[in-house]
Design goal:
The protein has about 260 residues and is an alpha+beta fold. The protein folds into 2 domains: about 110 residues, Elongation Factor Tu (Ef-tu), domain 3, CATH 2.40.30; about 70 residues, Helix Hairpins (Orthogonal Bundle), CATH 1.10.287. Helices cover about 35% and strands about 35% of the residues. It contains 4 helices and 14 strands. The strands form 3 sheets. The chain has a 6-stranded antiparallel beta barrel. Strands 2-9-7-4 form a 4-stranded antiparallel sheet, with no helix packed on it. Helix 2 runs antiparallel to helix 3. It starts with a helix and ends with a strand.
């Protein structure tokens, strides 16, 4: 009995090794796009990218009309300056009244009123500074730049178009990281053998070899010859920074 159990373990081990080392036919795909939008509303002043264009990290792609954002910043800066002046005046007045109170020539009520004015002016100054912070935030997000080297997949707006993000944020531009690809393949339930995300793979396509890893696993029911069979749709992510790969090209994936 022990001999049979031992042979069974060896057989399963060989089967698992064969499954994990299998090669699968795959197709080259792009990863899911990253959809970019803005948290502010405005009119598109400049649009500098089109679908299919490559952009460098930090490259400006879209700019809203700067007039309302600059005006809001100037207004907020003016409010801060005014409140700073009023606070200086109220502090000076409180200091004078404190001196008179110490000389017993000023009532407690008047001193307390002066102290309350100082507190109000400090609060107004904080409010003005908060408004300035919001104005700076809005100004900084009135431009859309590439967050990384990327390929522009699509642009859903036009120059001169007004966007209103007060109710719902609108996707403006969609990108995928430059040089990032997926090798997509199917694995039957019988051959699945507990593959996990992060498992290393070797991708072969166009005569080149790339190292990658499994990035997603999705269960699917596939109908073949009138029968539904359990399968897994697997994406293996890899990079090809030097050579441009064609979407839809055939590839093979070796599970390491």
């Amino acid at each position: 009995m022990k001999i049979i159990d031992g042979l069974l373990v060896i057989a399963l081990s060989i089967l698992c090794t064969f499954t994990s080392a299998a090669d699968y036919d795959a197709m080259i795909e792009l990863p899911d796009p990253i959809e970019l939008s803005l948290p502010v509303s405005g009119v598109i002043k400049t649009l500098e990218v089109v679908a299919g264009q490559y952009v460098k990290q930090g490259e400006k792609m879209l700019t809203l009309d700067q007039v309302p954002f600059q005006a809001a910043k100037v207004h907020a800066e003016s409010r801060v300056a005014v409140q700073q002046t009023l606070l200086v005046e109220s502090l000076r007045d409180f200091s004078n009244r404190q001196e008179l109170f110490d000389r017993t020539v000023l009532s407690t009520v008047r001193l307390e009123n002066s102290e309350l004015k100082v507190k109000r002016d400090k609060a107004f100054l904080k409010s003005a500074e908060a408004q300035l912070a919001v104005a700076n935030y809005d100004l900084s997000y009135s431009r859309l730049s590439a967050p990384f080297d990327a390929l522009v997949l699509f642009v859903s707006v036009n120059q001169g178009q007004s966007i209103n993000n007060a109710i719902e944020s609108k996707t403006l531009i969609a990108l995928v990281r430059r040089g990032r690809y997926l090798a997509r393949f199917m694995v039957s339930a019988e051959a699945y053998n507990g593959l996990q995300i992060g498992r290393s793979v070797t991708v072969k396509t166009q005569g080149n070899i790339y190292q990658g890893s499994i990035s997603s696993i999705a269960f699917e029911l596939v109908r073949t010859e009138g029968v539904q069979r359990k399968s897994y749709l697997i994406d293996a992510a890899f990079s090809s920074d030097e050579q441009l790969l064609l979407i839809g090209d055939k590839a093979s994936v070796h599970i390491n």
